[in-house]
Amino acid sequence: MDNRTIRLFLTASLLALLSCSQISFAEEGILQEPPVIDPQVVRLNLNEADIDDENFEVGAYLGLISIENFGTDAFWGLQGAWHVTEDLFFQAQYGQTQVGNTPVEDFADLNLVTRSERDFIFYNLSMGINVLPGEVFITDKLALNTAVYVLAGGGSLEFLGEKDFALNLGFGLRVIASDSFAMHITFQDLITDKPAILNPLGREGTAHHLQYTAALTYFF
């Protein structure tokens, strides 16, 4: 074997040894190097109110209703709901109040309608959809489930001696206060034809009655 062959063999052997040493050091470094991300998850024991399998909800509410041509009055009512799925529910509502005088009556010192005709009574059935579920953190260890929902439906309105169909549109916020109780804040618009007594010319038109309510309900 000539000197050239020996030099080539020694050079190749030296390169092989260096490569093995580098690989060994690299593997040792990988094994000893701590991970770049070392997650330390701290879990809070939240007392999260949640409605598990109760599908029915009943309750009562108080609020204010702005009746077109009659001003704003306090009113009360009852409501119940059937939660078909997590996001879809049907709600029935009943409410009543008694309106005061119109501005014309106050100005002219007249009584255009009788006392019984001033009763404002409505009931309707609406479909509701939860569109924005979320949570409200009361303390570091207490979280309440919430949901913003929309409502659309129809029903009947008895007012000024007439009984008409009323369309209702609105939205609300539900806060689950415990495993059985919830609070609601809602806004709805009751839309009907103008009563004949307020529309002497017989022109077509609609009346909007805006209601703002706060309710307490029970799940079962």
Fold topology:
Blueprint: H1 3-32, E1 47-49, E2 56-67, E3 71-83, E4 88-98, H2 103-108, E5 119-139, E6 142-159, E7 162-176, E8 181-193, E9 206-219
Parallel strand pairs: 1-6
Antiparallel strand pairs: 2-3, 2-9, 3-4, 4-5, 5-6, 6-7, 7-8, 8-9
How would you describe the overall organization of this protein?
The protein is built from 2 helices and 9 strands. It has about 220 residues and is an alpha+beta fold. The protein has one domain (about 45-220): Porin, CATH 2.40.160. About 20% of the residues are buried. The model is unreliable at about 25 (pLDDT under 50).
Write a concise keyword list for the protein shown above.
220 residues, alpha+beta, Porin, eight-stranded antiparallel β-barrel, 9 strands
* Averaged pLDDT: 81
Tally of DSSP helical segments: 2
Helix share of residues?
Answer: 10-25%
Distance between the termini: 97 Å
CATH architectural type: Beta Barrel
Largest sheet: 8 strands, antiparallel, barrel
CATH class bucket: Mainly Beta
User: Strands of the largest sheet, in order across it?
Assistant: 2-3-4-5-6-7-8-9
Total DSSP E strands: 9
Order of helices and strands: HEEEEHEEEEE
Number of domains: 1
Which word captures the global form?
elongated
Low-confidence stretches: 23-27
**CA radius of gyration:** 35 Å
